[in-house]
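LAB NOTEBOOK - FOLDING QUEUE
OPERATOR: T.R.
BATCH SIZE: 2
PURPOSE: Compare the predicted structure-token outputs for two unrelated chains run back to back under identical settings.
PRIORITY: normal
REVIEWER: second-year student, initials M.K.

ITEM 1
FIELD SEQUENCE / FIELD STRUCTURE:
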Amino acid sequence: MVVRRPGLLGSRFAKGTQHNPIEPTLEEATARMPVRGVRGATTVTRNQKDEILDVTTELLKTMLDVNGINTEDIASCWITTTPDVFAEFPAVAARHMGWTQVPLMQSHEMSVPGMLPLCIRVLLHWNTEKTQSDIRHVYLREAARLRPDLSSSTFSTAR
């Protein structure tokens, strides 16, 4: 079933009359803002609350800084950790940064043999006009080795 708002497909005004500024024009109603994914990852040296919050804050700030992201343009954020990171929810770092209106989701990664341990991964869904090739993904600390294929367009620091 399709629900149509009055004025979007056929204005209630006679042809040639001025548009009602309260109702969007057809062009305004169908304008689209692309949502892009911005990936990031980092690692902790141990499963400890303060370190989880500190490195998550560093990762989120770096992702925003290198891409020029304003918090109000973030549609949502998904954060995962490897099963060995459980002393604190990494999303707490985002809330401490003032992300009170950003929907956050957290989960654990699948436990796969050979996986990078003590890892925190982030996927930001960002409302932006930038193209996929303009996005800079961020891999910090030991997580820098997760995506060497993106090295030309990725901000990474191995420590």
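ITEM 2
FIELD SEQUENCE / FIELD STRUCTURE:
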Amino acid sequence: MIHLLVDAYNLLHQMEKNCRNFPSQRKLPRNPSLEDRRRWMMDLLLEYRNLKEVELTLVFDGAEVASLLPNRTKFGNLIVLFSEETDSADALIARLCAESPGSYYVVSSDLDVQLAAKNHGCTSLRSEEFSQKVFQSLENQAALSSSDDFVEEEDLPLYPRVSTKKRGVARKKPKSERRRRQVLKNL
């Protein structure tokens, strides 16, 4: 199972930008507090987690919540971590990657976090890509659940036509790009 380690405030800002492009998704209330924005994002990620069956760990900067919340909590099936007041979420993500090399897919647009993940054998995704993937998946799920037009299996051909004609120039992408595309495809 894929385990995503998310720089949460980084993703929150991207999701707020991208929610305008997906009209069927729940919108943020007017003038939301930080807690409302966090809860909105966690609700969407919980839906995504249940849809795609991935493990999600959200890492927030603890300096913004001081000591009001415990350092580790659960929100549904999501694991929510808050860094110490003196520490940042970026440092906590780097430490988690160092403790379990290669076991996480790190979601962050911060280049330092991406570099730390790469140095410890973890794959990194930009927050913009992951945010779009979340909204597209939820949008597709909403369209499927509201659609009553099903194609009967009887209407489909028994053996689909397969063409052996080659298309395009055969150029292989670099391994890092192929790996990143595979991760996006699996999410």
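REVIEWER COMMENT (ITEM 2): The first helix runs from residue 8 to 18.
FOLLOW-UP: none requested
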